[in-house]
Amino acid sequence: MDVSERIAALEEVPTESTLLFRVTNDEGETWEAILVASDGADGSSSDCDDGPHDGCGDDRSAERTGGTRLSCWLNYCQHLTHIKIDKGSGAPMRDGELVCANHGAYFDSGSGECTHGPCEGAYLTALEITVDGGDVYLTDDEYSFVGEGPIEDDGDLTSTSNVKI
Ligand code: FES
């Protein structure tokens, strides 16, 4: 495993929030991504059995360890794609779903599907991760790990919540 792609220790990944980090692509663009752990103890193999799509059709996002399912997504809502779900202090979550505070879209934290809200049926963009030796690594062909935390030059001008959650 490439140590430069280590995102965090497995135990650091929150279950009721998100771990925010930065990635870069081949064009040198920097983006934000989030890691989230969800309870996968029901034994289901995946929520992504309905064919390929941008979110999890290839099941890149999910990595199971014990009863926990880890998922990794680009940190951008599918309603307005410049809006960040995690504003820098962890994304809000309700009943295992990520919540975009701007207009109240709910995303299944395991499949990335928007289950409720203005972009219902759309999927978050998945990044491939791998758990090895108690650590989580980014193993995505398109993105490389940069570091923990947000992009400092925040272009999200609408970061104020419009909904009560
Ligand atoms: S920007 Fe996320 S729900 Fe509207």
UniProtKB/TrEMBL annotation:
Keywords: 2Fe-2S, Iron, Iron-sulfur, Metal-binding. The keyword Iron-sulfur applies. Residues 40-138 form the Rieske domain. GO terms for molecular function: 2 iron, 2 sulfur cluster binding; metal ion binding. PROSITE patterns: RIESKE (PS51296). This is Rieske (2Fe-2S) iron-sulfur domain-containing protein. It comes from Natronorubrum tibetense GA33. The lineage of its organism: Archaea, Methanobacteriati, Methanobacteriota, Stenosarchaea group, Halobacteria.
